[in-house]
UniProtKB/TrEMBL annotation:
Domain ABC transporter: 8-231
Name the UniProt record assigns to this protein: ATP-binding cassette domain-containing protein
Nucleotide-binding keyword on record: yes
Cross-referenced InterPro entries: AAA+_ATPase, ABC_transporter-like_ATP-bd, ABC_transpr_LolD-like, P-loop_NTPase
Amino acid sequence: MSPADVLIDCRDAALTFGRGPNAVVAVHGAALRVHAGDRLAIVGPSGSGKSSLLHLLAGLEQPTSGSVTWPGLSGLRDIGLVFQGDSLIPALDIVENTALPLVLNGMSDDRAREAALSALALVGTADLADRLPEEISGGQAQRVAAARVLAQAPRVILADEPTGRLDHATGGRVLDALLTAADETGAALVVTTHDPAVAARLTARCTMHDGRLTSADSTEADAAHSLGEPS
Ligand SMILES: Nc1ncnc2c1ncn2[C@@H]1O[C@H](COP(=O)(O)OP(=O)(O)OP(=O)(O)O)[C@@H](O)[C@H]1O
């Protein structure tokens, strides 16, 4: 694994909310590297700091100490985000929702629509294209969110509890959609979850507990590289 493959380099990054006696340390010095091709789960209970760590990786929060850099990315636009729950715009139909980030990035309406339709087809949601968000289920909405990120062809997909509000079978289909999105685009995939069954479907796992990234295991010997070594 060459240094060029490091897409996100999180070095001893901490995140504290508030000050003084009210300060909450959401993330204690976390070391983590995301490489091209990674399929990584960050597992931990509610409140353990998973979302906070993901926000650091996405550049949505600045670390209070330590650093997060993106050596293998041309910018934060190379990161596709999938959040838990509603992220679709109610007044736009599903294909328009899927195409929106592309249109906002300057793609023509026709090309964006075409890309959105093929992304929806890849995650098995082509039949929903003309519906409004209120006309689809929560699980379908999460698969549409996966299609939307697929259409953007990011280098890294960061998904925050994408199956959190779904039953097991529906959550499995959302994970299928995210894995398809990552495979089709060649993106690395990082998923936060409290569900060990979801984590088991990814190649490598980190554990978050009380803000500490405590351990990782792997089903592949070389996936240990996902944890950054102290430098
Ligand atoms: N904006 C904020 N201001 C103050 N405290 C916050 C803020 N965001 C998160 N926290 C606190 O930081 C800690 C970690 O929260 P975080 O949302 O990262 O955990 P989580 O593991 O993602 O939980 P969940 O699975 O419930 O989303 C919690 O104690 C939370 O209350």
